[in-house]
Structure formats: C-alpha cells, structure tokens
Design goal:
This protein is mainly alpha-helical and 191 residues long. 75% of the residues lie in helices and 0% in strands. Helix 8 crosses helix 9. The chain has ten helices and no strands.
Amino acid sequence: MKMGRLIILTLFLLVKFSAIQARAGNEVRDATLKPSSPFSLALETLQKQIGYTFQSIDLLRRAMTHSSFSEENNKALSILGASAIETSVSLQYLKKDIDASAKDLNNRILEISQVESSCAVDAILLGLQKVIRVAPKTNASAPAVVCGAFRAIFGAVAMDTGKSDDAGKVFWSVHGGGEVGRAAALCESVF
C-alpha cells in the first residue's frame, strides 16, 4: 500500500514539476519574442497600422531600410510594390469601367502613385518618416524616401505571401478604399 502511495505521490510531483517548468518556459519564450529595440517596436506598430502581420519580419525590416543606410535596402521591394499597386489600381478601375480608355487608366495610376502627392501623403500618414532607417545626412521625410518605403511595404507583403493580390488588398486598406481618398484630400495640407 505504501508503495502505491509513493508512486502516486511521485507521479503527482512529476506532473506539478512539469507544469511549473512549462509555465517558466512560456514566460521566457514570451519575453524573448517581444521586440526590444525602438525599431522593432516601430515595426510591430506598423504591422498593426497596415492590418498585416508578416511571417518574415525581415521583409518589413528591409522595406524600412533606405539605400543610404545599408546595401540591404528597400529598392527592389519598392519596385515590386509599385508594380503591385499599379496592377491593383488597374484592376479596380477596370472593374468599374471596362470601357475606360488607356489614357484614363494611366491617369488613374499616375494619380495614385505620384511621389509628391498620394504616395508620400499615405506614407506620412503611416508615420514612415519616423520608422525608415536612413543615413544621418538623408532626410527621412523627403517625398522620394517615404514613398519608396511606402511602396516597399507592399513589395514585402507580396514576397511574404507569394501573391501580389494580397499586396493590393493591404494597399487598399491603407490607402482608403478604391479611390484616391484621404491622400488626395490631405495632399495640399502636407506639402
């Protein structure tokens, strides 16, 4: 009888000890997963703002790195992002009017992707000038810098999911519907 109680007590202690270790492991894991640097915190905030959580945060990190800061920068992602935006704008516009002229379609694409207006305004609304890493002598608020970072976000989304359609969806959620929306309205007040 004593042997049975000893076995039960031993099993009970093993289960308790295992539970304590598991809790401690979770606490350590939670502490290590939390971003610690201001840049990592800014990336976490940016993901919430755009409504997309990256599987590979390194893609967003690269999207927020200007060529003046590092050779591992956002140039290629910016090109991919611009292409994803243009494709999405074209699809949205043609869904509304399949008979639209090529000139009208080009004008719509230009309207949404112009550096000095819509693109830079969207970037500033997200606060990208505070997030993008640049060299000390580079102006992080310059329209070309923030617009490049803005486009790079959508290139990073496309790379993260393997689908440019997903990048287009995230773009429209940030940009505000299928129109120029808030960016055009704020364009004059920012610049």
